[in-house]
Amino acid sequence: MIAWGTMARRAVGLTAGFLLLAAAPAVAAESAAELISTYRLKHGEIRVVRDATLDRIALEQARAMASKDDLSHEVLGPFARRIAPARAGHAAENIAYGHDSFEKTLGQWIDSSGHRRNLLLHNASRVGVASARDASGKRTYWAMVIAGDYEPKPGKKDKEPLVAVKREADSSSRPKSNGCHIKLLSLCI
After folding, report:
1. Alpha-carbon dihedral of residues 28, 29, 33, 34, nearest 10 degrees?
2. 130 has which bridge partners?
3. How far, in Å, CA of 135 to CA of 67, rounded?
4. Any alpha helices (H) in the chain, and if so which ranges?
5. Per the CB 3.0–4.6 Å rule, which of 47, 72, 109, 171 could disulfide with 115?
6. Distances in whole angstroms, Cα of residue 104 to Cα of each of 20, 32, 84, 111
7. Bigger pLDDT: 51 or 158?
8. Is it the case that residue 25 has pLDDT exceeding 90?
9. Residue 151 has what pLDDT?
10. pTM of the entire structure?
11. Percent of residues in the chain assigned helix, strand, coil, to nearest 5
12. How many whole angstroms separate alpha carbon 65 and alpha carbon 189?
């Protein structure tokens, strides 16, 4: 599972997460959000609602894993970069393959401590869920992205990103390299 934001502060790096597929009709995705919300409410967390941006991020991830037949958070690049368009303060991703139904996939995540931690991401309010089949049609890949902390902090006009990706400039204008590829809070990774 992969976590970003609050969870990333603890782990420094990215942690694997959860993933659900929204290639099915909208009703299925709403149903998935409701199942996740029911689980979260039983454990003292708030309800999540479906989010179009998170659905797209999850769908792109599920399709990429299915097309490459590779269960990997990195199949489309780092989670921090993929989740950036959501502009959330913290987020996590769960991925899986094998089960044809979301209910069974959710059960698999609930039975895994790391995936369960992502399902119960504190103050998460939005979720995206998607699935895709591999070329043979025999394996279903799932992706779920959950996120929260969308409100700017008091006293700040614009939300500051928790992850800053270092951009390369021409050699005459860039300072000496410190070896950072991604800067997470003040940590260089």
Report:
1. -20
2. 143
3. 7
4. 6-11, 26-42, 52-68, 79-83, 102-110, 113-119
5. 109
6. 12, 11, 29, 11
7. 51
8. no
9. 66
10. 0.67
11. 35, 25, 45
12. 25
